[in-house]
Amino acid sequence: MGNFFKRKGMYDMQNLLAQYCMNVLGIGPVADMRMVRTSGTGKPYLYYRDKIEDANMHSTLALAYAATTLERNDVVFLLPESHSLAASVTWAKNNTHLVGMGGRPGVAFLCPTIAPGADFTPVMTQSGWWNTWANFRVEHGRGTATNYYGVTLSGHFNSWINMDLESPLNATEAADAGLISLYQSGGHNYFENCQIGNDNVVRSAANQLLNINTSGVASVFKGCRFTMFQNVATPYLIWCASGSGVQNRWTYFEDCVFIAYSSNWATPLTTAVGYNYSGGTGHRLIFRNCSFVGVTDVIASGYENNIQLIGGNTYISAATQSGMSIVPST
Predict the structure, then answer these.
(1) Does residue 21 share a domain with residue 154?
(2) Domain end position, chosen among 54, 79, 104
(3) Do 32 and 122 have their domain in common?
(4) What does each C-alpha distance from 213 to 32, 75, 90, 247 come to in angstroms?
(5) Full residue range of the structural domain in which residue 250 is found
(6) Are residues 34 and 158 in the same domain?
(7) Are residues 74 and 90 in the same domain?
(8) pTM confidence score
(9) Residue 34 to residues 105, 136, 177, 240, 283: CA-CA distances in angstroms?
(10) Domain count, the chain
(11) Same domain, yes or no, for 132 and 195?
(12) Tens of each residue's pLDDT in the chain, 330 residues
């Protein structure tokens, strides 16, 4: 009888989780569900242990991912804990999803968090296609300059919903010119209500928050925040590389905010956007109703044709930062 009730509770929980994925995240129907917990204690685990089969409860993200089957719409759920990685994780299986359970990213309390437990780069790679990552935080930076990348996104047609990429979290990585928080070499990806970067650790080199490279084209960012804290004017909020693939197509930003904070707003970025190939042709960045704060200009002279500003785009220029007035970016 006890097994019957446990099984019934498991099915009820599976139905609820499946409905959540289908209705809220647009995933479905769900084939199999895995859950990651860091220990055998704590209220979240004690609650779910009676509702999830033991074989579907895993102690590490790597074990849970290994148990999934590609292209079957399997979902891995992260309990609201800190999940330490022993090595970089590559999410390579198509149609396989990762969802955090708990408080929204950006709020530390009960937020599912993935963090490196050793020195490696990147923290995670998303190379699969048609995956959804939702409602968890990825932390990047431990104090070794060679930890260059936070997340490498080389897959296509993926979705990030309510995600938080905290990068960098250590001054050593932040002082290295090779640092890239989000390296996007895959295209046609969709981001909604995500936060990329942080404004707690000072960047002191010409590194990059978002790098758009090779096939990283035709992606959409909606309602996202891009943040950094710098004491030099040389980092970039967005950098467009010179790979043959990225020198065409576009990236679209809608209702996004780009914030480059410096102490007393005294060190604005020279430009928010940088290119390392000739301006006027190639990849276009399209900004609709976006704002830039803490930059001298959005893009350098001679490269204006690489961006399109639609709607109520604004930026705060170096000359007006002391009064925090808004200057139309026309």
Answers:
(1) no
(2) 79
(3) no
(4) 34, 29, 19, 9
(5) 85-328
(6) no
(7) no
(8) 0.89
(9) 21, 16, 38, 37, 39
(10) 2
(11) yes
(12) 344 334 445 556 677 777 778 777 788 788 888 999 887 666 666 677 777 788 888 999 999 999 999 999 999 999 988 999 999 999 999 999 999 987 665 555 568 999 999 999 999 999 999 999 999 999 999 999 999 999 999 999 999 999 999 999 999 999 999 999 999 999 999 999 999 999 999 999 999 999 999 889 999 999 999 999 999 999 999 999 876 667 678 999 999 999 999 999 999 999 999 987 765 567 889 999 999 999 999 998 888 888 888 887 776 554 433 333 334 444
Written as six digits, the tokens of 263 are 């102490």
d(CA 72, CA 277): 41
* One-letter amino acid of 125: T
**Residue whose structure tokens are 């991912």:** 65
Residue where a domain stops, chosen among 79, 106, 131:
79
Q: What angle do CA 294, 295, 298 make, to 5 degrees?
A: 140
